[in-house]
Please model this.
Amino acid sequence: MTAALLIEDLHKIYDNQFEALKGISLEVKQGDFFALLGPNGAGKSTTLGIVSSLVNKTRGRVTVFGHDIDVAVTRAKLCLGVVPQEFNFNPFERVIDIVVTQAGFYGIPKKQAAERAEHYLRKLGLWEKRFERARMLSGGMKRRLMIARALVHEPRLLILDEPTAGVDIELRRSMWEFLKEINAAGTTIILTTHYLEEAESLCRNIAIIDHGQIIQNSSMKSLLAKLNTETFILDLEQDIHALPVVEKYALKWVDEHTLEVDIEKSQGINPLFAQLSEQGIVVSSMRNKANRLEELFVSLVDKNLPKEKVSLV
Amino acid sequence: MNSSTPEDFSSARYRQLLWTAFTTIVVKEIRRFTRIWAQTLLPPAITMTLYFIIFGNLIGSRIGDMGGFGYMEYIVPGLIMMSVITNSYGNVVSSFFGTKFQHSIEELLVAPVPNWVILSGYVIGGVCRGLAVGLIVTLLSLFFTDLQIHHLGVTVGIVLMTAVLFSLGGFINAVYATTFDDISIIPTFVLTPLTYLGGVFYSINLLPEFWQGVSQLNPILYMVNSFRYGILGVSDIHVGFAFGMILLFIGGLFTYSLHLLNTGKGIRN
Model:
């Protein structure tokens, strides 16, 4: 099956001689929900900018559903919808006009454009705001407006560059549900985000880019399986006045009703609970100190640590 | 979902895409300048009315004839042309720079719209504003003088070509501009002096021979005089030569504008 996105040996050197991409290669399969992660300045937005024709590449090849952006750019662009990181609409235009106009740029006749605009604005909870100027919308509404605009020509590949940045948690979760829905309907999605919980929850495959190179490209499941150690926070039912002594576990004192513990995958957690219970300490709740993907991400991109010494198996 | 299947992309569908995209840009541009009519359509109407009253009526009545016509009749074609030039240029330079500034140009760059369609859309948007203001000024001039059209083809042809030419000029200015100052430098320091010295208010035959020669290097002189020829039937220059020059400039500026878009100058990293 043709890849939704195929990137081969992509290079980008900016005019100031900064080498943003050092020959990255990447394949995103049709129907995938793909996370492209990396620290600020790693090359994510440059990569997505080249794919969406906003940045000129230095060399390399990009195909979207088999259409090379150098030789079949019209067909490639028809397959592509882009939700950028920054708001990039005219704030003085009305919401409905922004969406209908974008449909026009894709050759969609006015009547059909109006129908689709209504469909997506309703889906994203913006229909009531359709006659408002875009600048009057809240930050979350502006993000949803950009999603509606990107979907109005019903692309096969949707690129979302930090779509939930600055969006409150309730709205973020409703956007996740919406994205899952359109992915289930067949749209391939590529997502960049700084909320690693978001990537872990939504994406099946992942690439991590750092200093213009792909340093990890695998399924989310196999990547998370590499996590050897997790840190948990234990909330205790009664206050304690001294750090309990337990065998084989490195407990840390946080405060009189909270402990922290690093647990290796091979250890399991039940023996710890048993030892605590013997000392009359009851754990009322337990949570990860950091998101699992976040722990991996930090390990992978931490320049100060050699890659082979990070906590990966 | 996923109705965009480029595999069944026929040439008829491609033509339809181009036409829809082009009309979308033009309608968007017209909607923009009509939405802010108090900034785009009203000021030239007021300015030109003042020109008609002060230069045409008050001062013009003491000047007497110019080129065989009353002074008011003589300056009306030049003032109409001046409005067309400044407004077609101003529309494209402010609109295109605005889309760059707000990054809404990205809406077009990610879409399957060829660069020549983007350029044509913006140019026609500029032409529409130039013609709209030209029409308003023409209607206002009827309160001050009887306007007879000597040659309709020349009149319409020259005004259209001039609007196209200066829309292209505005486009190039917008591509190079990086600040709001940059979009006012050319209109203030180049366009306005050339327009005032382009025979709007006087016949170059009044100038000493040397300055007549210098004036002939001013491209706006050819447009103003050709337009005046279309309305009054008099001109300081050869109209056919003027048409040729304007066409040549349009070809040159269109090619250069397209080159700027293709290389992504000022709009793509």
Summary: Residues 304-313 of chain A have pLDDT under 50 and may be disordered. Residues 5-218 of chain A form a domain with the Rossmann fold fold (CATH 3.40.50.300). Chain A touches chain B through 46 residues (CB under 8 Å). The CA atoms of residues 196 and 294 of chain A lie 6 Å apart.
